[in-house]
Structure formats: C-alpha cells, structure tokens
Write a structure and sequence with these properties.
Strand content: under 5%
Oligomer: single chain
Shape: elongated
Number of helices: 3
Distance between the termini: 45 Å
Helix content: over 70%
Order of helices and strands: HHH
Length: about 70
C-alpha cells in the first residue's frame, strides 16, 4: 500500500514539476504588469520548483529573472 501511494504521489509531483517548468520558461513580461510583479512571479515559480525537489542554482535563477 505504501509503495502504491508513493508511486501515485511521485507521478503527481512529476506532473506539477513539468507544469511549473513550462510556466517558468514560457513566461513573458507584458506591458500590463509592473516589473516587480513579473519578477515576483518568476521567483515564485523558482521557489515552487525547489519545494518539488528541483533546486535551481543561483546563477540560473538570476539569468531567468533577467
């Protein structure tokens, strides 16, 4: 039973990680939002990936924001 639950939640985590990656790498700043709002959204995606077990190093995080 524990193995089944682990497999079930691992699959859900993989899907959520994929969706977060997709949102992060396809995110584009629009004229409607302020720069700080866009930066906070990108930082949120980076932090969410960290919570899902995929830590992005500092240099790549800075590059993504810029």
């Amino acid at each position: 039973m524990i193995m089944h639950l682990k497999k079930l939640f691992d699959e859900a985590s993989e899907i959520e990680r994929y969706e977060t990656f997709k949102k992060l790498f396809h995110y584009k700043m629009t004229r409607v939002f302020l720069v700080n709002t866009c930066v906070l959204k990108i930082i949120g995606y980076i932090e969410k990936l960290g919570q899902l077990g995929f830590v992005i190093d500092h240099e790549l995080s800075v590059d993504l924001v810029l």
